[in-house]
Amino acid sequence: GDSVTQMEGPVTLSEEAFLTINCTYTATGYPSLFWYVQYPGEGLQLLLKATKADDKGSNKGFEATYRKETTSFHLEKGSVQVSDSAVYFCALSPSYNQGGKLIFGQGTELSVKP
Amino acid sequence: EADIYQTPRYLVIGTGKKITLECSQTMGHDKMYWYQQDPGMELHLIHYSYGVNSTEKGDLSSESTVSRIRTEHFPLTLESARPSHTSQYLCASNPMGQGAGGYTFGSGTRLTVV
Q1: A73, A50, A52, A48: which is closest to A60 by C-alpha?
Q2: Backbone angles phi, psi at B107, to 5 degrees
Q3: 8 A C-beta contact, residue A54 and residue A64
Q4: What is the pLDDT of residues A33-60, one digit of tens each?
Q5: Whole-angstrom Cα distance, residue A14 to residue B48?
Q6: Are B74 and B23 within 8 A, CB to CB?
Q7: Residues 6+ apart with CB under 8 A from A61
Q8: How much is the pLDDT for A33?
Q9: With an 8 Å Cβ cutoff, are B41 and A107 in contact?
């Protein structure tokens, strides 16, 4: 079945460092891909998305490119801030899209130190 | 400001008790979902609904049940809570006809069964 795999955390960075969180997926057809962020004590929020191969999603300085050839959707940010500390989830919506369900990766915790 | 509300935010309850976790949304979304988030952060879909009187089981088997009598309300019930039910429960909604990127999540209910 369809699945998402993320790099294990926690990831600890200093402020202004470059961030990469790896995400790879297994899916039939052409899924849509998403990154969600969960701040402490809150629900998930959509960070960015891409719906077809080679699309680049971007928001708040974060970017991710849908790479069909490598089945990847890595999250990047050029200069992280303390306020970016959160848990990041990669997710896919299957191309067969049963009810718009999302399949999530296991989450990667990011901690940014001043 | 969140348009999907979950209550209670935190609940500690004894084994064998019956509990209902509330989820309400004010956006008129047809599709609603319950996810269980384990302590390792991974999210699993346990129930979803396409609209009033529609409920389906998700990918993870759960002893909980749900109902959808009104569009805005999607409560989850555990008839007899056990320590294995200790988890965070996240409710989400999505408009019909929109892909999974339209998800809105509630802030979650953190349940502890002692």
Answers
A1: A48
A2: -85, -10
A3: no
A4: 999 999 988 889 999 999 889 999 999 9
A5: 40
A6: yes
A7: A77, A78, A79
A8: 93
A9: yes
Please give, rounded to a whole number of angstroms, the shortest distance from the CA of B84 to a CA of chain A. 19
Q: How far apart are CA A58 and CA A55, in angstroms?
A: 10
| Interface touch B108/A87, C-beta < 8 Å | no
pLDDT, tens only, A60-105:
999 999 999 999 999 999 999 999 999 999 999 887 766 667 889 9
Cross-chain residue pair A101–B103, CB shorter than 8 Å: no
Nearest alpha-carbon partner for A20 in A72, A83, A92: A72
The CA distance from B9 to A105, in Å, is 24
CA distance B79 to chain A (A): 25
Say whether A82 sits in a helix, a strand or coil. helix
Three-class SS state of A8? coil
Q: Cα–Cα distance between B90 and A79 in angstroms, integer?
A: 30
Type of residue at B65:
T
